[in-house]
């Protein structure tokens, strides 16, 4: 689809009237078109007025039910990064990566079809909240381990990477500071380097340029970790040279 | 000027949804109850316009409100008002529900849509029946017939623009531009800023 065509989709987009493939195409366009993003913001607010105009009185019992339900529901963690174009881009990549990560972990469910995807977005967000809770517990356990050892190296473009390894927990944590966003459609994938053989250790969150990640899986015989830029899928083995290789502290 | 507010409450005593949502984001359940009182009616209105079925709409409305609670920490005021955020979520959820039903029987449904298309009058009636909706009504009238029908079918019925094109028997490209032009007119008429 040519750009001028895409631009006219702003109205349909704000009214949720696009099908999934077109919405994805428009969102890609949106990330690079400030005028479109502004227009979509205005249209969304306009649509909300259409919504206000049809307000009806809810059933009286609903209030108590909802109040009871929310008491059981854990809230999401806030997004800290500003909602700018780069974040929108990153967010897209993030969804892609969650998606691919699920596929990567050999989820057996056949997650095909647009409605599954629509539903999956919400489910994914919920699952993510639970995952990040667990991840942060695991993270603190590694960082606080009495035998935690760390090593910091300079990465490209002034970024800094620190790897923390706890032998007793057999786990490693990678802390990145100021890493560049992965190129469009790509993600950073982490690897354990075991005598030159790369073992998948999960993906980084492309939303954040600074983050702490627990490497997936045991350290085992690995003596270093690597980071590669991979297509937003899940690579079984690195498809490019590592952007960084960090020997584990001894 | 003495005038009923959107949701029929006294504005002087009504807390600001923005502030309430801020408190909700910090886990304040009492603030959530206050926010519920402000947005539940509009949310149900949006969901019911799209889903039609009252019982299903009440159910989806509850889901939306629980989602408001859950994702409140992710709300950022610079992206739009609290009510705007909630109603966008409500519309998306209602549309998702409608489309998942449609996916089950896409073809039959398409035929059914064509049959049912004139029902959007019912929504217009809802819009027009309410005094405090005067402004929206007036602004909808400033649209061309085709713009108005396209916007209403997409928003109030949750149709994709392809379905709108089918329902109105006009080319896809025409619907695309009419939706956008219609929203530009509405935006300007309502004095909306993002």
Structure description:
The complex is a heterodimer of chains A (250) and B (194). With 250 residues, chain A is α+β, with helices and mostly antiparallel strands. Chain A has helices spanning 3-7, 10-14, 20-31, 34-52, 60-70, 85-104, 114-144, and strands spanning 148-154, 160-166, 171-177, 186-194, 197-203, 211-214, 224-231, 244-247. Chain A folds into 2 domains: 3-52, no CATH class; 85-250, no CATH class. With 194 residues, chain B is mainly alpha-helical. Chain B folds into 2 domains: 12-104, Rna Polymerase Sigma Factor, Chain: A; 105-194, Arc Repressor Mutant, subunit A (Orthogonal Bundle), CATH 1.10.10.10. In chain B, helix 7 (134-141) crosses helix 10 and helix 8 crosses helix 10. The chains are: A alpha+beta (250), B mainly alpha (194).
Brief descriptors of the model:
heterodimer, A: 250 residues, alpha+beta, 2 domains, four-stranded antiparallel β-sheet, 7 helices, 8 strands, B: 194 residues, mainly alpha, Rna Polymerase Sigma Factor, Chain: A, Arc Repressor Mutant, subunit A, 10 helices, globular, disordered N terminus
The domain count of chain B comes to 2
CATH 2nd-level architecture of the largest domain in chain B? Orthogonal Bundle
Mean pLDDT of chain A: 76
Number of strands of chain B: 0
| Oligomeric state of shown chains | heterodimer
* Spatial strand arrangement across the major sheet of chain A: 1-2-3-6
Return the CATH topology of the largest domain in chain B. Answer: Rna Polymerase Sigma Factor, Chain: A
State the CATH class of the largest domain in chain B: Mainly Alpha
Domain module tally of chain A: 2
Q: Give the CA-based shape of chain B.
A: globular
Low-confidence stretches of chain B: 1-12, 114-129
Helix content of chain B: over 70%
Q: Profile the largest sheet of chain B.
A: none
Query: Helical residue percent of chain A?
Result: 40-55%
């Amino acid at each position: 689809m040519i750009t001028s065509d895409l631009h006219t989709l702003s109205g349909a987009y704000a009214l949720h009237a696009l099908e999934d493939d077109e919405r994805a195409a428009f969102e890609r366009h949106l990330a690079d078109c400030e005028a479109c993003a502004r227009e979509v913001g205005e249209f969304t607010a306009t649509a909300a007025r259409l919504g206000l105009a049809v307000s009806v009185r809810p059933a009286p019992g609903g209030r108590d039910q909802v109040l009871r339900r929310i008491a059981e529901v854990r809230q999401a963690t806030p997004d800290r990064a500003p909602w700018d174009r780069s974040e929108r881009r990153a967010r897209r990549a993030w969804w892609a990566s969650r998606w691919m990560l699920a596929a990567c972990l050999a989820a057996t469910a056949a997650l095909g079809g647009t409605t599954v995807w629509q539903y999956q977005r919400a489910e994914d967000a919920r699952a993510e909240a639970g995952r990040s809770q667990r991840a942060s517990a695991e993270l603190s356990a590694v960082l606080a381990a009495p035998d935690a050892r760390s090593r910091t190296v300079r990465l490209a473009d002034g970024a800094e990477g620190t790897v923390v390894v706890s032998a007793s927990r057999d786990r490693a944590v990678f802390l990145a500071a100021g890493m560049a966003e992965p190129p469009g459609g790509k993600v950073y994938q982490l690897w354990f380097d075991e005598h030159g053989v790369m073992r998948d250790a999960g993906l980084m969150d492309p939303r954040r340029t600074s983050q702490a990640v627990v490497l997936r899986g045991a350290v085992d015989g690995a003596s270093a970790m690597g980071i590669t830029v991979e297509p937003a899928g899940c690579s079984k083995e690195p498809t490019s040279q590592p952007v960084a290789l960090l020997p584990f502290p001894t | 000027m003495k005038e009923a507010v959107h949701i029929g409450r006294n504005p002087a005593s009504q807390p600001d949804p923005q502030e309430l949502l801020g408190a909700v984001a910090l886990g304040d359940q009492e603030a959530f109850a206050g926010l519920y009182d402000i947005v539940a009616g509009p949310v149900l209105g949006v969901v019911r316009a799209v889903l039609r079925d009252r019982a299903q709409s009440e159910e989806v409305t509850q889901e939306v409100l629980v989602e408001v609670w859950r994702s409140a920490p992710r709300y950022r005021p610079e992206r739009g008002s609290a009510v705007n955020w909630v109603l966008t979520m409500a519309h998306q959820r209602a549309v998702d529900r409608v489309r998942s039903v449609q996916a089950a029987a896409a073809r039959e449904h398409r035929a059914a849509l064509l049959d049912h298309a004139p029902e959007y009058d019912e929504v217009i009636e809802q819009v027009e029946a309410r005094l405090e909706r005067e402004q929206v009504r007036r602004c909808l009238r400033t649209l061309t017939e085709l713009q108005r029908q396209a916007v209403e079918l997409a928003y109030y019925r949750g149709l994709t623009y392809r379905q709108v094109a089918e329902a109105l028997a006009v080319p896809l490209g025409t619907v695309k531009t009419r939706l956008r032009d219609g929203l530009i007119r509405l935006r300007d008429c309502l004095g909306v800023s993002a």
